[in-house]
Write a structure and sequence with these properties.
Helix content: under 10%
Number of helices: 0
Distance between the termini: 40 Å
Radius of gyration: 13 Å
Structural class: mainly beta
Length: about 130
């Protein structure tokens, strides 16, 4: 059973930066695409970013392009989300997830992922 644990969230001001981490344990990590999603109150969960197992491909949602960077360290079974120039609209619970099966792609739909962390809250004040 794969377990994913996010950390690094917090309360920051607009324009600040945060780095989220997601540590995986209990199963395979290095062969799978990893993704970050977020969910704001009253809204559906939305895709943020994804990275293939080799880090050769990444995908970002339009609202975060140029501000967020996803990366991974397979030796540490950890995926990261560096968030710069944060905006109040980035406020949400952020989740990391692992794809259902090994893939060379970077899927953006939540149904392509079957292991999820518990989430970490990011709050950006204006």
């Amino acid at each position: 059973q794969v377990q994913l644990v996010e950390s690094g969230g917090g309360l920051v001001q607009a324009g600040d930066s945060l780095r989220l981490s997601c540590a995986a344990s209990g199963g395979s990590f290095s062969s799978y695409t990893m993704g970050w999603f977020r969910q704001a109150p009253g809204k559906e969960r939305e895709f943020v970013a994804a990275i293939t197992w080799s880090s050769s491909r990444t995908r970002y949602a339009d609202p975060v392009k140029g501000r967020f960077t996803i990366s991974r360290d397979n030796a540490k079974n950890t995926v990261y989300l560096q968030m710069n120039s944060l905006k109040p609209e980035d406020t949400a619970v952020y989740y990391c997830a692992r794809t259902i099966q090994p893939t060379l792609g970077t899927p953006w739909v939540p149904t392509e992922y079957n292991y999820w962390g518990q989430g970490t809250q990011v709050t950006v004040s204006s």
